[in-house]
Amino acid sequence: MADGGGGRAAELKDQGNEHFKSGNYLKAAALYTQAIKLDSDNPTLYSNRAAAFLQLVKLNKALADAETTIKLKPEWEKGYFRKGCVLEAMEQYEEAISAFQIALQHNPQNTEVARKIKRLTQLAREQKRAVDVENLRSNIDIRKNLQSLKKELATKYGDAEMGQNIFSFVISVIETAIKAWHDTGKVDAKVNFLLDDQKTDTEKYAPVVNIEKAFESPHTHGSCFAYLRQYSEESFSKAACMVAPKSIISYPQVWKGQGSRKWKLDQSDGFFVQFESPILRKIWFVASTAEKGRALCRSPEPLDITIHEILPRIFKENETSA
Fold first, then answer.
1. Which residues contact 286 (CB under 8 A, 6 or more apart)?
2. CA–CA distance, 257 with 255 (Å, rounded to integer)
3. Could you give the count of Cα atoms lying within 13 Å of 246 in the half-sphere of its Cβ?
4. Three-state DSSP class for 207?
5. N-term to C-term CA, the chain
6. Do 33 and 45 touch, CB atoms closer than 8 A?
7. Residue 297 pairs with which residues in a beta bridge?
8. What are the tens digits of pLDDT across the range 208-225?
9. Of the four listed, 82, 136, 157, 184, which is most buried by Cβ atoms within 10 Å?
10. Which bin fits 283, alpha (ψ -120 to 50), beta or left (φ > 0)?
11. What is each CA distance from 229 to 7, 203, 274, in whole angstroms?
């Protein structure tokens, strides 16, 4: 520190404090910087500038000044307090709590720090849960969950390639539906068809048929079923996979009236997936819950097709075994 620098640095610090109080954080930071040039070992100047940088949302600079404050005066609570405030702004709650705990060790009577620790502990818990939810949303392994279907298809068809193609078709339909549910909170009611590469007239038959009106009444349901059966035959489809949100189904509400066999997911939101090929039929329910304000799909729950059938057999009954 140059001769007389301490006095001038103190003046600059006081000026900076006045600008800080009036909300002129940029000017305050500039004055603290000038003071630091004259008194570079003064922890108070770095602490004050850290506070100004925090208000300016220059968080990396604020954190560097907080660390310097601690280095120059490790027994002073203020450096740890500044560090904790910056880390809080960075949403690094666990690290912020650690800094505030050290500040509290140096001044156990500081009620503001104690309150921050309590609040950030709750925020850290919520943050961890939010991360866990995102991980769950991103890591639903449908292939792993439906390995039994893969084996059953291979056995039923006696053709590994055909079984794999149908299995991949089902997985694609379910994964697409889950992604749509996670992104928008809904799925459209539709039937996906696995068309024949050689026989299907793709200009006439699309791989997806919307069935939004199918579940309004027994009449619309029956009409839709008849149309889908004809569609599957004329398009030479190898398999079909329906997706339908539970919320739009007025008929048939297969989750009601089962007595002792009452469905455990009766109150759950979510969607049905019903798969059918000429030799196999399956149905699942993908339940959804709200976690931290985000929709979270659970793994597909297999259901008894004889109880929870949403659509009758699309493929001819005499070609199908349940």
1. 174, 177, 178, 181, 270, 271, 272, 273, 297, 298, 299, 300, 301
2. 7
3. 19
4. coil
5. 89
6. no
7. 288
8. 999 999 999 999 999 999
9. 82
10. beta
11. 92, 19, 14
Q: Give one word for 126, left, alpha or beta, with left for phi > 0 and alpha for psi -120 to 50.
A: alpha
Q: Residue type at 286? A: V
Share of the chain above pLDDT 70, in %: 91
Q: Is 270 left (phi over 0), alpha (psi -120 to 50) or beta?
A: left
In the 8-state DSSP scheme, what is residue 83? H
Residue 293, Ramachandran bin (φ over 0: left; ψ between -120 and 50: alpha; else beta): left
d(CA 165, CA 160): 9
pLDDT, tens digit, 9 for 90 and up, residues 47-76:
999 999 999 999 999 999 999 999 999 999
Judge contact between 159 and 150, C-beta under 8 A: no
Kindly report, residue by residue over 18-38, the tens digit of the pLDDT: 999 999 999 999 999 999 999
Q: Which two tokens stand for residue 111?
A: 């009620």
Secondary element (H or E) of residue 139:
none
DSSP label at 216? S
Q: Where are the beta strands (DSSP E) in the chain?
A: 190-194, 208-210, 239-245, 269-277, 280-291, 294-297, 301-302
